[in-house]
UniProtKB/TrEMBL annotation:
Cleaved signal peptide residues: none
An individual GO BP term: nitrate assimilation
Domain Rieske span(s) in chain numbering: 5-102
Pfam families: Rieske
Record protein name field: Assimilatory nitrite reductase (NAD(P)H) small subunit
């Protein structure tokens, strides 16, 4: 079965080296990131350390630094970098005609 996608906005609504938080059903938030090179990634908006809001962190390369305790999280894998241990779930994302699409099944799993 082919994945179904949810349109969460235009690419230009997410600043370069920035992010945007999106609420999904159940109150969970997804953080959508745009790197300096224009790549789009989506993660649950919680650092694996102390649940800091990753959408408020600093985007550098393909990583984000949590604003609470400076953990660096890979936007590609969700894994904490360096000596820190933990993982933030990633959300499959695609871009179609300038629109950011997240996988519906992943968003529904968050709401459960």
């Amino acid at each position: 079965m082919m994945p179904q996608w949810i349109d969460v906005g235009a690419v230009e609504e997410v600043p370069l080296r920035g992010s945007r938080a999106i609420k999904v059903a159940g109150g969970e938030e997804i953080a959508v990131f745009r790197t300096g090179s224009g790549q789009i990634y989506a993660l649950i908006n919680r650092c694996p350390h102390k649940n800091g809001p990753l959408s408020q962190g600093i985007v550098h390369g393909d990583s984000v630094t949590c604003p609470l305790h400076s953990w660096v999280i890979s936007l590609v894998t969700g894994e904490a970098q360096g000596t820190d241990k933990g993982c933030t779930p990633t959300i499959p994302v695609e871009v179609h005609s300038g629109r950011i699409m997240i996988e519906r099944a992943a968003a529904l799993r968050l709401a459960a």
